[in-house]
Amino acid sequence: MKILLDESLPIKLLNYFGNEHIVSSVRDEGWLGKKNGELLKLMIEANFEIFITADQNLQYQQNLKNLKLTTIVLCSKENSFESLKKLIPKVLEALKKANFNNVIEIS
Q1: Tell me, what's the pLDDT at 62?
Q2: What digits encode the pLDDT tens for the residues 15-24?
Q3: For residue 45, what are the contacts with CB-CB under 8 A and spacing of at least 6?
Q4: What is the distance between the alpha carbons of residues 51 and 80, in angstroms, rounded to a whole number?
Q5: Nearest to 65 by CA among 105, 104, 106, 103
Q6: I want to staple 43 with a disulfide (CB 3.0 to 4.6 A). Which of 24, 48, 52, 82 is the partner?
Q7: CA atoms within 13 A on the CB side of 106
Q8: Pairing status of strand 22-25 against strand 2-5
């Protein structure tokens, strides 16, 4: 799967997805500072299938239901690398199930 990590996430998380997936960050793609609507459009044009973010408001700010993209929201009390790293096994498990809704919350 082709996965994009939001700019709000620690870049070190890229190292925790193994070799099964193509994982990139907003920074890698040169999309830093893009507004959510523009970012979503760029992701779809670049054939990303999964967007991982910690922005718990995104699903209420954007119409994600009609997009050919699944957004995984990491729900943690803090946005630290250590806290978010603990959620990656749950993300990988969700990816294995391949039963995607438009928004999946992981906590």
Answers
A1: 63
A2: 999 898 999 9
A3: none
A4: 18
A5: 103
A6: 48
A7: 24
A8: parallel
Confidence at residue 89, expressed as pLDDT on a 0 to 100 scale: 96
Other beta carbons within 10 angstroms of residue 11's beta carbon come to: 13
The identity of residue 45, as a single letter, is E
> Half-sphere exposure (CA, 13 Å, Cβ side) for 39?
23
**In whole angstroms, what is the distance from residue 79 CA to residue 71 CA?**
17
Domains in the chain, please, with CATH? 2-106 (3.40.50)
Collect the ranges in the chain with pLDDT lower than 50: none
Q: What is the pLDDT of residue 36?
A: 79
CA atoms of 40 and 51, how far apart (whole Å): 9
Q: Are the beta carbons of 39 and 17 closer than 8 angstroms? A: no
Q: Are strands 2-5 and 50-53 parallel, antiparallel or unpaired?
A: parallel
